[in-house]
Amino acid sequence: MFGKKRVAVVGAGLTLFRRNMKETGREMCWEASKMALDAAGLTLKDIQCVAYGSAPDAFDGIHMKGENMTDASGAWRKPFSRVYVGGGTGVFTADAGWWHVASGLFDTCLVVAEEKMSSCYPHPAYAFTTIFDPIMDRPHGTTLIWIFSLEMHRYMHVHGIKKEQIALVSVKNKRNALDHPCAQLGAKITVEDVLNSEIMCWPVQRLDISPTSDGAAAIVLASEDVAKKLTDNPVWIDGVGWCIDSTYWTNRDLYYPDYVECAARMAYKMAGIKNPPKEIDVAEPYDPFDYKELHHMEGLLLCKKGEAPKLTEEGVTQRDGDLPINPSGGLLGVGNPIAAAGLMKVCEIFWQLRGEAGKRQVPGDPRTGLAQAWGDLMQYGSVIVMRR
Amino acid sequence: MREVAIVGIGCTGFKPITPDISYKELMFEAATRAYQDAGNINPRKDIDAFVSCAEDYWEGHSIFDEFVPDQIGAALRHLFTVTSDGMIGLATAYMLIKTGEFNTVVVEAHSKVSDITTFTDIVNFGLDPIFNRPLGAHPHYMAGLEMTRFLHETGNTREQCAQVVVKNRKNALLNPYAAHGANITIEDVLQSEPYFHPLNRRDVSPNADGGIVMVLASEDAAKKLTDKPVWIRGIGWNSDTSWPESREWGRAIYTELAADMTYKTAGIRNPQKEIDFAEIDDSFSYKELQHLEALKLCRQGEAGKLTKEGETEIDGDTPVNASGGLLGMGYAIEASGLHRVFETVLQLRGEAGKHQICNAKTGVAQIWRGIPTATGAVTILSTEVE
To answer: Which candidate from A62, A241, A247 shows the least CB-CB separation from B66?
Structure first.
C-alpha cells in the first residue's frame, strides 16, 4: 500500500490577480478551489485532504490564518495542514500536496494558495518590516526593497551586468502577461520606460518590481490509479525540492542563490534530470523583481553563472525561444499575491504541458516543465518538476 | 509497508518563564539532546528533511521560518515550516518518510509564550475579524460555553472536571520536566477565581516555555540508529469548521475523525483494550474528559466517572496524562502536541522515572490546537511494529 507513488495534477484554477479585490480571502480560496475541482471533474466529496499555503498572517491580521481558511479551502472535517516558507510558499504548497499523496495516505489532495495583501494598511510593504531580526535589523527601519537593492547590486557587480539587460525581463514578462486573462499588469513597455521609472532604492526602480496583489490559485492532485481514471492527459509531479539558507543573510555572498541550487538539485535528482537546460522545456522561475528571474535561472542550473542576461538579450527566454521563461507573464506581469503567485506558476506549467495555455502556449510540444519560488530573507528555494 | 519510528527525542523541560534564554537557545538545546539521543547523529549530514512548527503571531515575527535553520543544524538543508501544532508536524514527517524519498526527518516545536505580553489579544486575533472579534470578549469565553454544552450533553459533572486538575497537577510533581506540579484538592479548584462559567481559574492550563525536537526514521534507518525505536503505528489529524457558530459544541468532532483515521491505519479495533495509556489535551479540565470520549477510550458520559474512580491515575487501568498533561506541565502553544508525544515515547521506552506506567506497550497521544480552532491530531505509538 505505502511506498513511492506517482502523483498527478489533474486540475487547476486561478482567480483574477488584482489590487483591492472585493472578495474576501475565503471567497477567493473557494473560487480557485471550485475551478480546479471542476477542471478535474471532481467535487469536494472526492477530496481526502487539503494542503494550504499563505504568506504572512500580518497582511490579513488574522492569527492562525490557516485555521480561518479551512472551510473555504474545502477542508471541512478533513485533514488540513498549512505550510509556510515565506515567498517560497506557493510552489512549496504543491510540494506539500505531493507528499500527502506520494506517502500513500491519501488518493486525492486539494492544494490551495491564497493571499489578500491589500487589506494591510497603510501599505502591504509595511507588513514586511516585521520580517527582520528585531535586534539586529529592525531598528534600521529596513524594508524589503533595501535588501533586494543590495542583492541586485552585488549580482550586477560580480558579473558586470547592466541595468538595460535586466530591464529586458520586465519588458518580456509584462508583454507575456497581456495574454493572461488573470493578469494585473500586462503592458507593452520599453527598456527606457523601466530605466526612467521612479527610483525606489538604487538600483531598484518602480518597473523592476512586481505589484502587491490579491488572488488565489488551486490544483487538484491524485494518485496514479485515480488520475488515470480521471483524465487521459495527467501531468506528473516527478520532482520536488526545497532548501533554506542561514538566517544571517549579512554573512552570505548575495550574488548567487546557493539555496535555489540546493533545492533544484534535490528535485532534479528525484526526477532523474541530469542536464537541466536540455531536459527542461519550459520554466517559471520566481520573478518578483526582474533581476530575480536571471538570478534564479542561474540557481536552477538552467544556464551558467552570469549567463542569464545574455540569454535574455538573445531572445532565448522568449515564448518562442529555445528555453521559454515565464511564458505566463510571471509575477511582474500577472501579479504577486505571494503564495498564490507561486502556485499560479505551477498552474501555468500544468496548462503548458497539457497544451491548454491558449495564446500563451509555447511551441514545440513541451514535455517537461519547472516552477520555482523563493522567499524569506533571500534564503528559501522551492522547486517542482512536472512531466506530461 | 514502510514503517516509521521515533529514534531520538530531546526536550528542554518546561518552565513558566525563561528570561535567561532565547527561543533560539531553547531550540538548540532540544535539538542537541535529540541528535545525541538518536545515536549522536550529525544534522548537517545525516538528516534528509527538517519540519518546524510555528505561527507568526506567537513569535512576534512575520515569516518566522526565516529564523529556524541555524540553531537546529538546518542551514542550507531541506527545512520548512508547518503552521500548526507539533503533532501535525510529526504527521508531516511521517508522510515524508512514507514517500520513500526520505529516511530521516526531524520535527521541531517550541514555546516562548512568556515573551508574549498581550497573550489574550493574540488569541483574539485568531477570531474571525468580522463576525467574532468585534464582540471584544476574552476569547476563553468559548471554552466556558463549550464546557456547559459538554456537561449538559454527557452528564459528566463539574466536580469530575475538577478531579482532572487535581490528578494532573499531582502527576506533574513526579515529572522533572513539568512547570506546574502541585498538591491541590477539588475544593481548591472549585474555589479558585471564577473564570468563564462554569470554569474556574485552575481549570485552565497555565502557559509554559520549552522546546522539543524529535528524529524520525524509516524502518531500515531506525534499526541502525537505535535499539529502542518507538513505532508510529498510526497518525491522523482533522479540522472541524472554522465557524464557531456552526460547530458541534458538545463533542470534539476533530478528535473523533482524527482517531478514526489513526485507528484504521494502526489496525486498532478496540481502543479501550488495545491502548495501555493516553497523553491527551487537557488545556481546559473538561477537555480531558471530552477527548477521552472522542478517542473511544470510554463510552460517552463515562469519562468523569472513570476519573472519579481513579481509573485514569498512574496506577489505574488506563492512565491518562501521567506526565501531568497541559494542566501540570504547562500549555506550550505549538509544542503542546509534540510534548504529549515526547511523554508517550518516554513511557514506552520505560524512561519516565517516577511517573512510569507499568507494562506500557501501546499509547495514544492527542492534541487540540486550542481556541478558536477545531483542529486536532492523534497518534498511536508502540514498542511493537505490528
So the answer is: A247
